[in-house]
Amino acid sequence: MTRVVVTGVGALTGMGNHVDAIWESAKQGRSGIAPLTRFDTTNFSAKVASELKDFRLTDYMKVNERHRMDRFTQYAIASAIMAVNDAGILIGEHVDSERIGVWFGTAIGGIESFESGYQDLQKGGYESLYPFATTTVISNMASSQVAIALQARGVNSCTVLSCASGSNAIGDAMRVIQRGEADMMIAGGTEASLTPLGIGAFCAMGAISSNPDPNKACRPFDKNRDGLVMGEGAGALVLESLDSALKRDAYIYGEIVGFGTVSDAYHITSPAPGGEGCVRAMEIAVAQSGLDKKDINYINAHGTSTVYNDRSETQAIKEFFKEQAPHIPISSTKSMTGHMMGAAGAIEAIFTLLTIKTGIIPPTINLQEADPDCDLDYVPNQARETRVNAAISNALGFGGHNTVLVFKAVG
């Protein structure tokens, strides 16, 4: 089977507007969470979020182009351009434009455009709507506009699987290359849901932290956590065959060797008892990788800072890894990025690859008093240096979606 590697990465988070800055913050345990400024939060229980800071859209597109796109699409384009530049490829020169595709995930899509469009409709009827009101909202615009911006004319698709969207997009893109339908793929996830509706819906659900202190609000696996903190941004990876990467002497971050995705078929928000869906996804992904579970020496957890997720994921890791579980370093980088929804899996895949490449495991910050039901090694508060040869990244989404990616070093 065709071996698929990652040769370029690009990212935007509240921790920074470039992978280097984001990774430096991660190593230092510096959070991107701050007071939410996108709108007035007076009547909202949530007061903090991980917003992009000092992001310059004009570095990636002309001013007149941005009006045809929602923020989630703009973020996707920026991350994709960074990833392609990082991979050192010129579409049409290093790869035929018809042999490079795009696969992006998003959980919510153009919610900001939806809200503003509805307000316009209420004020002035349909005649007051922006002519591109439809195309700013629909979820496939991220992958479509990335393709247009980069002239990637191959396979183009969009994954909408809640918080597992970004991870699934990467796994699906890997399979496109393995099937021979493309030579390269630009894959990732994007989200921009820091809006009154986006935040308000999670407040109503009771799933979001009401802690106003940005330095303490997001605390995965901690006894005193009170919910997730939302984030925004995008992550993109350039995937290509190992043969292609070696032929052009590309820098290789790592190899993607396993992809497991299953449904709980249990509940729209709660994970199945014992995290059984996550267990099955790990079983599939590790079996597909050709590795033994004993080869896995790092887990980038979904780790949302909610009671249900943190306990369920801990149970799943224990069930799958058995006696090995207490000895595997695990971290939730959401403690620093916030929960980026459809972008989370892509950003966390990048963190996993950088951990393999550098031997530095980013910490789970704000973990002061562990939940008694969360009793594994979550790398609390300080990064750890150790050799990591193979790792998994978990992504678990509303609707019962469980997605696991397995990465390993290329020797």
UniProtKB/TrEMBL annotation:
Domain of life: Bacteria
Pathway connected to this protein: Lipid metabolism; fatty acid biosynthesis
Keywords from the UniProt entry: Acyltransferase, Fatty acid biosynthesis, Fatty acid metabolism, Lipid biosynthesis, Lipid metabolism, Transferase
Matching SUPFAM superfamilies: Thiolase-like
InterPro entries: 3-oxoacyl-ACP_synth-2, Beta-ketoacyl_synthase, Ketoacyl_synth_C, Ketoacyl_synth_N, PKS_Beta-ketoAc_synthase_dom, Thiolase-like
Cited PROSITE patterns: KS3_2
Pfam families the UniProt entry points to: ketoacyl-synt, Ketoacyl-synt_C
Enzyme class label: transferase
PANTHER family: 3-OXOACYL-[ACYL-CARRIER-PROTEIN] SYNTHASE, MITOCHONDRIAL, POLYKETIDE SYNTHASE-RELATED
The protein, known as: 3-oxoacyl-[acyl-carrier-protein] synthase 2
Native organism: Cytobacillus purgationiresistens
Lineage of the species this protein comes from: Bacteria, Bacillati, Bacillota, Bacilli, Bacillales
